[in-house]
Amino acid sequence: MPVHYDELWKNIIEKLFPHFLSYFMPKLYADVDLEYGYEFLDKELQKIKLKGKKGKTLADKLVKVHLKDGTEEWLLIHVEVQGKHEEDFDRRMFRYFYRLYDKHDVDITALAVLTYKTDRQYDFNYDVYGSKVTYSYNTACIAGYSEEELQCSQNPFALICLAVQYDNLYRDDEEQKFHLKRKLIKMLRERAYTKEEIIELLEFIDDALFTTDTMKSQIFDEEATSILEEDKMAYVSGFRQRAINQGRQEGLLEGLLEGEMKGEMKGLLEGIRGMLEIKFGSVPAEVQNKMQAISDLAKLESFKNGIKKATDYEQVRKLL
């Protein structure tokens, strides 16, 4: 089953951005003043958004950071999520650059993270009767990192890269992917990551090395839970989406007695409550009350999707 990396990458970049910058652009990371903060410019990127073939939206992020010398820098992060190179890729990178530069007149540096194996030179060259443009940008090819190098690194994105490499190598071998998921969990246990970092990494690993076997998924959930329980961290049975699905299934069973829609709403509310506990700890009473007051299933689904991007309960409250 092919992995849809778009949302996985967008989420993990936002949640673990300092680690992302440190791993893929260490020189820029050394100059960035993280205490000043950083800002994801999704609205600005949307205004000049490009699409790939057949209307496919690309997994891109635009981030504004502040350097230690007081200047601003815009970082265009382009994650190429396809399994092979597209001929217009360099042109797309150039078009992003000139549209942003023309619109905002700011310094821009770009990074393309490539999830497929390649050794080609990435830049855009335009040469028409003496009129020339060459646009070069930063690239990081995940396949180019050695497994030993990734295993030795303490940066969370080393495990992300390992998960992508393993998926590329064993995409159709569920037994091997399950074995490697457990291997990555063991590596997670040996690293001093925060609760939030562990949860984000587990979600990426689980989805990147997706398996259809429910028994294997249950074993993964139990081993993932054991990491959190070692540090007495709040956790809900099952892992994120499976926790939601489990709640919805239980709700649907009750729905046979009290009405299918009512049961599904109850199950979804339980799953959402689990998501909130995983991300932020115990759910405040006013948040629970406002959730319970939602009577429309579509609105509840929309609220659930918004939680994925929220960083604290203040943002959660704005969704209600």
Low-confidence stretches: 232-238, 248-261
Amount of beta strand: 5-15%
DSSP helical segment count = 15
Which structural category do the helix and sheet elements fall into? alpha/beta
Q: What quaternary form is this?
A: single chain
Shape: globular
Q: Strands across the major sheet, in which order?
A: 1-2-3-4-7
List how many beta strands DSSP finds.
7
- H-E string: HHHEHEEHEEEEHHHHHHHHHH
Sketch the major β-sheet: 5 strands, mixed
Give helix % range: 55-70%
- Please give the alpha-carbon distance between the first and last residues: 35 Å
Q: How many domains would you count in the coordinates?
A: 3
Radius of gyration, in Å, reads 21 Å
Q: Round the mean pLDDT to the nearest integer and report it.
A: 80
Overview of the molecule:
This protein has 320 residues and is α/β, with parallel strands linked by helices. It has 3 domains: 5-144, no CATH class; 147-222, no CATH class; 241-319, no CATH class. It has 15 helices and 7 strands. The protein has a 5-stranded mixed sheet, sandwiched between helices. Helix 1 runs antiparallel to helix 9, helix 7 packs parallel to helix 9 and helix 11 (241-258) packs antiparallel against helix 12. The longest helix has 21 residues, at 260-280. The protein starts with a helix and ends with a helix. Mean pLDDT is 80; it is low at 232-238 and 248-261.
